[in-house]
Amino acid sequence: MSFKFPHLWIKSGEVARTLTQGSLSKFKHLIKWKKSESILEAGFASGSNSLQTLVPLLPHDYKEFIGSDISDEMIDYAKKEFKLPRSEVVKLDVCGEIPSQFRERFDHIFGFNVIHVVKDPRKAFKNIKDMLKPGGSTFLTFFQHTPIEHSFVKLKNSPKWGRYDHNEMIPPYHYSASPLDEYQKDLEAAEFSKTIIQKAYETYTAKTDEDHEVLTDLFYAVNPVQLQISDEKERNEYMKEYISEVFNGPVVNQRLDENGNKITDLTTLNMVVYATK
Which chain regions cross the lipid bilayer (predicted)? Predict the structure, then answer.
């Protein structure tokens, strides 16, 4: 999947930060830093999430930090806005052919909320291993189910919206009885020397109108299918139905508090992986 709307991604960044910080706070003790390390982050997007979650954890004497993403729009934005000493932003498909200069280059590779959106997780894990130096490590977080995938399946099968291509937005193991088991098999196939797998629920709770706007912006930001619809009226109708499907889907829970105010919980079952080469 390639996301196309960096400004919306920035506006909704609180959601990604909340989910990422939850996983890091529980499992950052697994990361072992050394001197003068090379670091890669896959699925970097605009870089805003990294600045507030990963960058504060970096040792001051790191050698280089490379942020990578598959989206041209995100890369262009990050190149202009992401400011960090000894850093670079590059285009990289973690499931594609890895540049020769990236093989066995990195001491650490991070990927937050990204593996569930790649087309070939098994190839991604293998590529991550190939990019690590001997003894290097990777720290990855990803979801069993995303909040948007069920809506894309429904719209894909809709008589009205099925003519648009939704397949890219449906994770590879959506139809599996246990996506996390499938990811674990892919990890085993990559043959890391040591792998630690943890599961943890993370929640973003929207209590105010502003919180709900943040969630809506996020769901807009991760829907590139809308770009296929040239007619504005039809596109607005499609997005209205899409947003309704997401908020009524199985990953998003809406309820009322004791005062009758609407509360929305976005709860994901995360798989947290720490693996060494």
Answer: none
Do 267 and 144 form a contact (C-beta atoms < 8 A)?
Answer: no
Residue 63's alpha-carbon distances to 33, 43, 77, 106, 227, in angstroms, are: 12, 20, 24, 10, 39
Q: Find the length of the chain.
A: 277
d(CA 85, CA 273): 27
Q: What is the 3-state secondary structure (H, E, C) of 64-102?
A: EEEEEECCHHHHHHHHHHCCCCCEEEEECCCCCCCCHHH
Residue 210 vs residues 245, 248, 275: alpha-carbon distances, Å: 20, 19, 38
Indicate whether 274 pLDDT > 80: yes
18-31 pLDDT tens trace:
999 999 999 999 99
Domains and their CATH numbers in the chain = 6-276 (3.40.50.150)
CA distances from 25 to 20, 55, 275 (A): 9, 14, 18
**Residue 2 has what pLDDT?**
76
Nearest in space to 54 (alpha carbons), one of 6, 30, 20, 9: 20
Q: Are strands 87-91 and 64-69 parallel, antiparallel or unpaired?
A: parallel
